[in-house]
Give the backbone structure.
Amino acid sequence: MPKRLNATMRGFLLGLFAGLAMQTSAQVDDGIYVIPSFDAYLVILSRNDIVNAYYFGLDGEDSYWLAMQGSRVGETIELADQVNGELGASRLEQDGLGLKMSLIYCNKYPLDVENPCADSVEEAAVFPVLKANGNLKAIYRTQYGADYAIFESDGTGVLLVFEYGEDLNDRTWIGAYTGIINEDLTFTNPETAVESVPDEDEDFTFEFSLQISDLVNPQATFANFSCVDNRVAPSERGCEFLQETYFSKLIRKF
């Protein structure tokens, strides 16, 4: 199980889920959960018995996200993770009005049996916030180092972006958006709920939609892409270069 994060939720629930009904099912369903004692969130998306999840906390430049993979085992979900020289695994199971997240194991890497992860929390309460109860559930990897987790909740599209920063150990950038999923499966009109580190004075301004191919094997492409070069002295590496290099392909990884 990841360690406790020194994070503040800062109205994330109100921002992302304004106008959307809160969900109270205790079943381990797909969707977004809150872990109050960690000031953190958990996103679960599954296909058959295979599960992908993201654990994240929001606190500006101290925000953090972690990718987890696992499977359903009977009535529970087991998830494994690897971060900062530690190998860990957690179990999610029903517990009263919510869920319980408990530690299965945590080991240092390189392996050190004399010094296990002593500061890992053994158990925490987890509560459902928003179910992923639509037909669309997928995760895509971009060319610029971000995962797009997209799902549908009661007809509303939800897009979560988990992006690398300066290097592959920099996992501080998180974005959450709601939007419309049209009949042709285009995710459009995104509204920003929260960005962990808001973009300011960026060299480029981008806008795009996500075109989903179908619900059986939902491949995705960038659609209606637009780019504005805000640099005072533009170089040859402008919008056309960035579109071809970073916004021309999405790979579905789940």
